[in-house]
Amino acid sequence: MPLKNCSANVPSSHMLQETLAIILSKKQFKDENFIVSAYTEKFGRVNYTVYGAHSRQGGRKLAFLQPMSVVTIMADYRPKRDLQVLRDVSCSTPLMSLLADPVKNTMAMFLAEFLTHALRTNEEDRFLYLFLRDSILWLDLTPSDKIGNFHISFLVRLSVFLGFTPNLGPEQSDMLYFDLLNSEYMRYARPNADLIDPEEQHFLRKLLRINYRNMHLFLFSRDERSNLLNRIIRYYQIHIHGFGQLKSVDVLREVFDF
């Protein structure tokens, strides 16, 4: 089926660079301008300036710049700039339900905020980009009643690409605690350490087996799912300096009742 032509064209320039991108956030500054953050296929994490948002052409651009949208961006890309100037944006991969379904949209808003905190590098990582894009497509096509564990699967897999996935190794009966900072087992609890105690370790091993195909088969209680999410967020906060707090997590808990 032919894709919908959803572009807002502007005159070309010899400085323009085109790249596929996933929108993470947009914030208004001054009266008619926006700053858009995206993870791109060619340049990693990039912040763009969108001028004249209240004009007819600017409004068309903003319509494509919703969090977790998959788009093609044309911009005056200059590597040493903190802000690139966005000239054109078009719909790369139309999403069928992600932005319209309130349940899926809540999940998407949480993941977009999480990625805004987690993704820092402005270097190309095509495998990470493809993982993000394919994850968005999975979320878009999966029925809403089967996505309750999607964020857990996504965040566990994301840690692999960021280089700090938990290395559990074989179970050892005398190693009672798992240290989140050093990603290793310990015999004894260390004061002030971020640890997973013996009662929670079976959940940790479950996490490393979860994926988008089987996620609906993992049955967690409300408290278990909430605790797992807390542990995962804390794990990222430990391994990414300045990760900060997430605002959308409370909305996620309310919608998914955990």
Description of the structure:
The longest helix is centred in the last third of the chain and has 18 residues, at 222-239. The chain starts with 15 loop residues before the first strand and ends with a helix. A five-stranded mixed beta barrel has the order 1-2-3-5-4. Strands 7-6-8 form a three-stranded antiparallel beta sheet, with no helix packed on it. α2 (102-118) runs antiparallel to α7 (249-256), α3 (126-141) runs antiparallel to α4 (150-162) and α4 runs parallel beside α6 (222-239). 26% of the residues are buried. By secondary structure, the protein is an alpha+beta fold. It has two domains: 16-93, OB fold (Dihydrolipoamide Acetyltransferase, E2P) (Beta Barrel); 102-165 and 208-256. The protein has seven helices and eight strands; from the N terminus they run βββαββαααβββααα.
Distance between the termini: 39 Å
Instruction: Count the beta strands.
Output: 8
Count of structural domains: 2
Residue windows where pLDDT falls under 50 for at least 5 positions: 1-14
Helix and strand pattern: EEEHEEHHHEEEHHH
How much of the sequence lies in strands comes to 15-25%
What structural category arises from helix and sheet content? alpha+beta
Q: How can the largest sheet be summarized? A: 5 strands, mixed, barrel
Average pLDDT figure: 86
- In which range does the helix fraction lie? 25-40%
Spatial ordering of strands, largest sheet: 1-2-3-5-4
Radius of gyration over all CA atoms, rounded: 20 Å
Number of helices: 7
Q: Which word captures the global form?
A: globular
Quaternary organisation of the protein chains: single chain
